[in-house]
Design a protein that fits this description.
Radius of gyration: 19 Å
Number of domains: 1
Helix content: over 70%
Order of helices and strands: HHHHHH
Largest sheet: none
Strand content: under 5%
Oligomer: single chain
Distance between the termini: 21 Å
């Protein structure tokens, strides 16, 4: 049975290993949040943002695995690398800016007498990552990709 599971993982490693990277990074964030706040927040498993970036970990892991298998001069590696750079730029740029805007809008709407807008739920503020969070996620992805 163990041999069958190992064969399955190796056959589909380009899907399974990056998904495991994502899962364990998200699990780490959930446990860290549990320890620091002493509250269980199951939403943390699926939420974006925080240290480290699971998005960066996943794409760099996949890119590293592809580079090891087909070589860094292959078109497949080039596509994967460009995809990884776009994802990491988006995480540290666009989504981070959207999170900052959400935080500001939440403050504006919650200020008494400032607006007549009725809001029933807060905007999600933790959407993106700092460059450090992106780099740590990328480093995790690189290490796991080199191992597998």
């Amino acid at each position: 049975m163990f041999q069958g599971i190992t064969n399955f993982i190796m056959e589909y490693k380009y899907i399974i290993i990056p998904i495991l990277v994502w899962f364990f990074i998200q699990l780490f964030k959930f446990l860290y949040d549990l320890i620091t706040t002493k509250k269980i927040n199951f939403k943390r498993i699926l939420q974006a943002g925080g240290m480290p970036s699971s998005h960066s970990g996943v794409v760099v892991c996949l890119t590293t695995m592809i580079g090891k298998t087909v070589g860094i001069n292959s078109p497949l590696f080039a596509v994967s690398l460009i995809f990884s750079l776009v994802v990491m730029y988006d995480a540290a740029g666009v989504r981070r800016a959207a999170g900052k805007q959400a935080k500001l809008l939440n403050k504006i709407v919650e200020t008494p007498g400032l607006t007549g807008v009725q809001v029933h739920e807060r905007l999600v503020e933790v959407l993106g990552h700092s460059p450090k969070e992106v780099m740590v996620g990328a480093l995790i992805g690189l290490i796991v990709g080199l191992i597998f």
